[in-house]
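Re: [ENG-882] Designed sequences occasionally contain unexpected residues at chain ends

Forwarding the minimal case from QA. Structure tokens:
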């Protein structure tokens, strides 16, 4: 394929669309299967689908998509999860868990995880079904437009979403199915039943919905994001999910909110590794816990459902206001008084400045 011209069909990305979704649509629009299109465009020496291209998009891929579709390069980069850098996570590390980003759990070209979610009603309303960036975000467990739970797997066969594999195993099929079809069983996700969300705390869900709307497009404004609050929410969800001692906290919050208690695991469990139902439960409790800051956290501590030393456990780069609050709990526990409390805060700030 000529590298100096636009492709015969060169659709631009839809609002908030994932790079992988856009690439598959471009291949289908040009009448080619995805693997054939990628081989002709990028060559056999450049593998595309053995990585999470939405998270780890190589420059040659994004630049080619930009040039061959006539899409501005900046807009092309906005189809990647790098759009959320300094908003949901600080650094886009190559390996390991990325805060708030659902993992695909890659194994060669297979995806063993359930890292791409979807709203059946959104897909049904699309003129052409496509998958959104926001659906890769761990706290995006329900659709703020349709007030229904997202799905993270095919409701018929249980397989995760992998639209780049729709044509695999069908050599005789020349026409391609829409991205809303399950690659394994062919079920149309648009036909899936949806579960309405239970707004058991209007204040909690107002804050949650506001955060969902902030991530619900391709290039969210950094000025509208409260990075520190989302980092604290992540820490609260982690405490609610794992560790035998933390079962006290989960049970306490569940009782206070009238929600069902769920079994937590012994050890550490990342919120990003949970299925959508488990994440929704834990995040609901976490949003409630960090609401009306810091009264609910303080009450949990006073009732011995929470220890102050849990709050900073494995919490790198915690916001200053959060660290200062933990210091007040520690000083109250040890009875060192206000003077010692102020000394603790000043020492923390001084040490932080020296490190920088």
């Amino acid at each position: 394929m000529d590298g100096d011209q636009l492709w015969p069909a060169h659709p631009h990305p839809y609002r908030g669309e994932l790079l992988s979704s856009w690439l598959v649509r471009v291949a289908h629009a040009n009448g080619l299967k995805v693997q054939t299109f990628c081989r002709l465009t990028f060559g056999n020496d450049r593998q595309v689908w053995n990585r999470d291209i939405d998270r780890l998009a190589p420059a040659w891929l994004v630049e080619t998509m930009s040039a061959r579709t006539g899409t501005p390069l900046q807009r092309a980069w906005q189809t990647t999860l790098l759009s959320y850098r300094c908003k949901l996570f600080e650094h886009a590390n190559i390996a390991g868990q990325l805060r708030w980003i659902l993992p695909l759990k890659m194994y060669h070209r297979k995806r063993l995880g359930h890292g791409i979610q979807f709203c059946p009603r959104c897909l049904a309303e699309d003129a052409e079904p496509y998958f959104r960036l926001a659906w890769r975000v761990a706290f995006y467990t329900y659709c703020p437009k349709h007030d229904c739970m997202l799905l993270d797997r095919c409701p018929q066969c249980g397989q995760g979403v992998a639209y780049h594999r729709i044509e695999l195993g069908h050599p005789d099929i020349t026409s391609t199915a829409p991205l809303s079809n399950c690659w394994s069983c062919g079920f149309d996700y648009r036909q899936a039943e949806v579960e309405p969300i239970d707004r058991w705390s209007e204040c909690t869900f107002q804050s949650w919905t506001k955060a969902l709307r902030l991530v619900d497009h391709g290039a969210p404004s950094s000025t509208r994001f409260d990075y520190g609050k989302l980092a604290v929410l992540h820490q609260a969800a982690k405490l609610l999910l794992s560790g035998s001692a933390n079962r006290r906290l989960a049970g306490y919050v569940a009782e206070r909110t009238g929600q069902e208690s769920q079994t937590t695991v012994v050890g550490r469990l990342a919120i990003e590794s949970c299925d959508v139902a488990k994440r929704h439960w834990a995040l609901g409790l976490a949003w409630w816990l960090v609401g009306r800051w810091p009264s609910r956290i303080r009450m949990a501590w006073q009732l011995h459902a929470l220890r102050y030393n849990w709050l900073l456990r494995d919490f790198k780069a915690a916001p200053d206001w959060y660290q200062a609050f933990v210091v007040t709990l520690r000083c109250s526990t040890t009875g060192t008084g206000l003077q010692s409390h102020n000394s603790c805060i000043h020492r923390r700030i001084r040490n932080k400045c020296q490190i920088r």
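QA comment: On inspection the terminal residues look reasonable. The CA atoms of residues 199 and 205 lie 6 Å apart. Proposing we downgrade this to a documentation issue.
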